Amino acid sequence: MLKVYAASWCPHCTKTIEFLQKNQIAFVYFEIEKQSEDVIKKIIQVNGGDDWVVPTLEYNGKWREGRLYNEMALRSDLQALGVSI
User: What percent of the chain is modeled with pLDDT above 70?
Assistant: First the structure.
């Protein structure tokens, strides 16, 4: 299942979640600021090693680093991860 590491205060996260819901894509939401140190370290690593960036997505061991919301890019990236849209 798609995992979404996000923050409730992040407008790009909100738009990403709305896109997933609108397209009936099942996902599990993880509030980034409530995650363990190990999870935070992984998110930082996925995002280049400096800091965590949201929304960061993971699907079956494949990662998409945090990015500004762009529907076309999100759709393309989800398909590249293997998510059915």
Answer: 100
What's the pTM? 0.95
Say how many CA atoms lie within 13 Å of 84 toward its Cβ: 3
Q: How many C-beta neighbours within 10 Å does residue 11 have?
A: 10
71-81 and 11-22 helices cross at what angle (nearest 10)? 60
Amino acid 58: pLDDT: 98
Q: What is the CATH number of the domain that holds 50?
A: 3.40.30.10
Number of domains observed in the structure of the chain = 1
